[in-house]
Specification:
five-stranded mixed β-sheet, alpha/beta, about 550 residues, Rossmann fold
Length: about 550
């Protein structure tokens, strides 16, 4: 074995052992949000053989999740009263989350600032925090969410004080960062804060001490929005984040009414469900086919929007960790791979102006975080440029790569899409601003998921290309490898064996390579050769699950 390979094995073993020392806190496979949805078990095949049916199934799963939220109107009303009382008393509302829930937290602040005119007493009274700061909108900071102390510290640095109210959201109900922020809020402010999650409380309390701490805390009011498995296993960017944003956002905007009521909340949720269930989606498959064909030809896209920046950005940046794609490139990284898509706000002319337009406020990067400022600080933030100059900059970097414009804008009371020769209009009717963005979120989630299905970035409804960037995702990757090995009747590999192999593959993989598939095929190859799970083998895996890499024909 050569020296470089030996060093990779040593490093992999060290990292694997570090994870295994705490792995018991992240064995989450029996949580409903980590399960496989029975309605979408053949989704990857449908993405290539019957797009219309795939779209219908995904919309059906979304509507099922919205129906589950209908049952929580009383809890949402109670939260709305709590929010309104806080604002009337001069307090502020803080939303906190990480990953998808961090993005929904920032989205709610943006929509609030769009709805409340400057100069209004409450204009600046809604704040949001995302694990890793605003830069994490683009690219999550590895392992940041695994530290409860970071959630507490960010809350303190944001100026959270007595009389303020925290709304903490975590899809799984177990995210350490969010739990840390929630517990810190109870120490700082005497109000009864809110904790929103999407798994049965009894399972979380039984499994994890950190969940028990927060779910049994007398100063934390809970809303359990269990909606079952996601359309893609574990992809909580979809149904879980939709219902969390719907619940928290509906409560928030009820505060602008003189008297929040159960009927008003029920009507708002019912209107979104009815609208989404009846929305004509026949035009969507053409957009899915066109975008996936662009990537198959080695081309890229620029998503261009005026009104929907935060929602479009959320969907496009969440594709990177979900499907092991290159993240948006930063201007400071001259040798970074070109991302498949990027965002452009064409009315802006500099990175800082684009960020302010996107967030409706000055951005909040990490400042004073010695270990993270290089990847989450102010200089890093402005390297992500969504201004009108991004098209020319990307073309200059990669002159041989054709860029295509995907325009998403508001036209009268419709959401208007244009890509190549394809156009479509999706009416918003009487939907509120919150529900309009949720409608677009669900459309984009369906669209991007099926684009990735056509590129082979998941198998059935299993997220085989997940990038294990934190402890929860490492456990998920190991479990997926276990499932794939079992499906092929391959035995003899323990959780620990798979863990070691997974970290070994991480040590020698590019950012957009599918670690789950690489780990599976490496172990399958060793099994076929009569070998063991010992790291350092010279086996070079050949994918037995088909993976169509972007740019491949």
């Amino acid at each position: 074995m050569n020296t470089e390979l030996q060093q990779r094995e040593i490093t992999a073993r060290q990292k694997a052992n570090d994870f295994l020392a705490v792995a018991g806190q992240f064995h989450l496979g029996d949580l409903p949000t980590e399960g496989q949805h029975p309605k979408t078990k053949n989704l990857s095949a449908l993405a290539t053989s019957d797009l219309a049916q795939a779209v219908r199934l995904m919309r059906e799963v979304d509507c099922d999740a919205l129906r589950a939220t209908q049952q929580k109107c009383a809890d949402i009303l109670k939260m709305a009263h709590s929010m309104q009382q806080t604002l009337k008393a001069g307090g502020r509302i803080f939303f906190v989350g990480c990953g998808a829930t961090g993005r929904l937290s920032l989205s709610l602040e943006v929509l609030w600032r769009e709805s409340v005119q400057p100069g209004h007493a409450w204009c600046d009274s809604v704040r949001s925090l995302m694990a890793g700061g605003d830069v994490a909108l683009i690219r999550s900071i590895e392992n940041f969410e695994d530290h409860p102390s970071y959630g507490a510290r960010m809350l303190d640095e944001a100026g959270f004080r007595e009389g303020d109210l925290l709304i903490a959201s975590t899809e799984g109900g177990e995210t350490p960062y969010v739990i840390g922020a929630a517990l810190r809020a109870t120490q700082v402010s005497s109000k009864n804060h809110w904790f929103l999650f999407c798994n049965p409380a009894e399972i979380l309390i039984q499994k994890l001490e950190r969940c028990k701490q927060v779910l049994l805390h007398p100063q934390l009011q809970k809303i359990n929005l269990t909606v079952g498995p996601m359309a893609i296993s574990g992809s909580t960017r979809m149904q879980a984040s939709t219902v969390l944003m719907l619940a928290a956002g509906t409560a928030l905007f009820e505060t602008l009414k003189d008297h929040p009521t159960f009927d008003s909340i029920e009507q708002s949720i019912d209107s979104l469900l009815e609208h989404q269930g009846n929305l004509a989606l026949e035009a969507l498959p053409a957009f899915i086919e066109h975008e996936s064909d662009c990537y198959a030809r080695g081309q890229t896209l620029i998503y261009e929007t005026l009104e929907y920046g935060i929602t479009v950005l959320t969907d496009t940046t969440e594709r990177s960790p979900t499907f092991s794609l290159s993240a948006f490139e930063n201007r400071a990284d001259t040798d970074a791979p070109t991302s498949l898509c990027y965002l452009c706000l064409p009315h802006t002319h500099s990175a800082h102006e684009a960020w302010e337009s996107l967030l409706k406020r000055s951005p909040r990067p990490l400042v004073g975080w010695t270990d993270y400022e290089q990847i989450g600080g102010p200089n890093r933030l402005v390297g992500y440029d969504f201004s009108s100059s991004i098209f020319a900059w990307r073309q200059e970097r990669r002159p041989s790569i054709q860029q295509n414009i995907f325009s998403i804008r508001r036209q009268n009371s419709d959401i208007f899409l244009a890509l190549g020769a394809h156009t479509a209009q999706f009416p918003t009717g009487e939907l509120s601003l919150l529900n309009e963005h949720l409608m677009l979120k669900m459309l984009l989630n369906i669209h991007s998921t099926l684009v990735m299905g056509r590129l082979g970035r998941y198998h059935g409804n299993t997220m085989t290309c997940v990038r294990p960037s934190n402890f929860k995702l490492i456990d998920r990757s190991i479990r997926y490898v276990q499932q794939m090995l079992q499906a092929e009747h391959i035995t003899g590999y323990s959780y620990e064996d798979i863990c070691f192999q997974c970290f070994f593959e991480l040590e020698q993989s590019e950012v957009n390579e599918p670690i789950v598939l690489k780990t599976f095929n490496a172990l399958k190859g060793k099994h076929s050769a009569g070998g063991s799970a010992h790291l350092g083998s010279n086996f070079v895996p050949k994918f037995s699950y088909e993976l169509r890499a972007p740019g491949a024909r």
